[in-house]
């Protein structure tokens, strides 16, 4: 465990633990990947959103003013297909799933970002970026199946693949183009990736300064970030599945336009498994929040389970494991409730003091790459000691302990 008072984070970009320092003192510009709203978010998605929430809340706990943007992918190949399947508009489809998402945010105590931005609301910026990339030669027009699209040539960007540490010596010599937003099952699109879908029979179209069409998924985060936070931010977060292709594309696009580093720190969260298997509709093991609450668990209990495991590691969900972590949370909550009920009595020992100990222990673990598990386990041990001695402690001391616990819970959001 780090004893340094500085927040230290595992930075995917450097591959090491780096001390966090924002560009502007006291201010943090933060970008977090959001949902693809063609479908309802499941608890695996919420594990990612929760580690991002912990990161934001802890930065605020340390005194930073955090401005956070979350991207909502509402226009993509999958959304077009799903809307047609359900016989509704894309707007109706994505709005329905957004409504569910924000209800789940309340359930899980996930703070709403300052800017929750739909990709469809940043099309103007997408067109601006493409214009710059076309002018610099990083991107070009190409007609595919009668539709005029725009593609990005990764070989034009020096350092392409630096986030995922891609071995560019394996890049094919023959030029290839990838025309879809995503190709399931393919780890890397080893070729030029699409930025802009021109208008075709199946496409949603927006009128822009570069013509009619829609931004590809690969461009959407770059458009949203640069429109609301600019070309230089402090922290970018997302799930590990966005590390390959997606985030390196975002870096290549933005840095090709600006010539400056997009983000100094990149954090990626591990997958959530269900009974040892990856969640998928084909396996029938996708778990939603309603599946958990129907079995009698609260939003706080599910939140705790999803934040308790180290965020970079895979976490295996079963209802038995959820029950086990819930027991630990309930024990701590019960001790805290007893402390709150403690009343002033004469002849108490005023020499024992726990003031500041809880917060210093909490910060020591959280500064060690957001070690929620270590923080919680140490917190439980110390509260257990306080609880055991509560009859002998001065009333003011117990009040100070409760104050410290409330401050800690501004991050954890599951103790009271």
Describe the structure.
With 416 residues, the protein is of the alpha/beta class. 41% of the residues lie in helices and 20% in strands. It is built from twelve helices and 16 strands. It has helices spanning 43-61, 77-86, 90-107, 123-136, 217-228, 243-258, 289-293, 299-308, 319-341, 357-366, 372-388, 395-412, and strands at 8-11, 16-19, 27-36, 65-73, 115-118, 139-144, 147-152, 177-178, 192-198, 206-208, 211-215, 233-239, 263-269, 272-274, 277-278, 315-317. Helix 10 (357-366) runs antiparallel to helix 11 (372-388). The two termini are 27 Å apart. The model has no long low-confidence stretch (mean pLDDT 94).
Global Rg: 24 Å
- Please report the total strand number as a whole number: 16
Helix content: 40-55%
Structural class: alpha/beta
- Uncertain runs are none
Number of helices: 12
What would you call the shape? elongated
Strand content: 15-25%
- Output the helix-strand order: EEEHEHHEHEEEEEEHEHEEEHHEHHHH
Largest sheet: 6 strands, mixed
Average pLDDT reading:
94
- Give the termini separation: 27 Å
Tell me briefly what this model is.
This protein has about 425 residues and is an alpha/beta fold. About 40% of the residues lie in helices and about 20% in strands. Strand 12, helix 6 and strand 13 form a beta-alpha-beta unit.
